[in-house]
Amino acid sequence: MIFIVLEIGRPNVTKDGHEVRSCKVADKTGSINLSVWDEPGLLLQPGDILRISKAYVSVWKNCLTLYMGKGGDIQKIGEFCMVFSEIPFMSEPNPDMAAQLVGGATGPGNQPANPQAVNATTPGVGPRPPGNGRQQNLNGGAWPSAAPTSGAMGGNGTIPAPFPRVPVPPSKGGGKRDPRKR
């Protein structure tokens, strides 16, 4: 993942003596807070363009936050010249999500029971589809379901081909290898 550093917060010191900084970072899809621990946080400057590997996101204090995972790496690859967007700001505090998580109203995999409510208060972000973010055919969708229906598929239950199938003529080499691959 490649992004630009927009802001760097003041360091907080943990009980173990580690310095933790929260930085606002962005790419062309939006912005998020990045939590940086110890030495990498000392070296960051606003305007740095970074590549991070093995990163993950998690909710901390009701805000979505980007973290570098175990064995992850952060590298400076440039400065200042990058197209980015500050909106949507994915780390916007979301009290609805906190209420759902505290109230125990979660579904399988600790996902909120009502996924539409997750983005309900985030400005500029519309409701997201249920489940894994992919659209689902809920009996009446615009594409064929597993059961054939009249009109959506051909008469024998197969999806009609977009163009007629034409047999491919045999190669002139009589089944020999492609002469370009020697």
UniProtKB/TrEMBL annotation:
Which GO biological process categories is it annotated with?
double-strand break repair via homologous recombination; mitotic G2/M transition checkpoint; response to ionizing radiation
**Keyword presence, DNA-binding:** yes
Give the source species.
Answer: Daphnia galeata
Is the keyword Electron transport in the record?
no
Instruction: Please give the residue ranges the record annotates as the region Disordered.
Output: 99-182
Q: Where is the composition biased (Polar residues)?
A: 108-122
GO MF assignments: DNA binding
InterPro entries xref list: NA-bd_OB-fold, SOSS-B
Sorted keywords for this record are:
DNA-binding
Q: Which PANTHER family match?
A: OB FOLD NUCLEIC ACID BINDING PROTEIN-RELATED, SOSS COMPLEX SUBUNIT B HOMOLOG
Taxonomy, superkingdom: Eukaryota
Q: What is this protein called?
A: SOSS complex subunit B2
| Residue spans of biased composition, Pro residues class | 161-170
**Cellular compartments per GO CC:** chromosome; SOSS complex
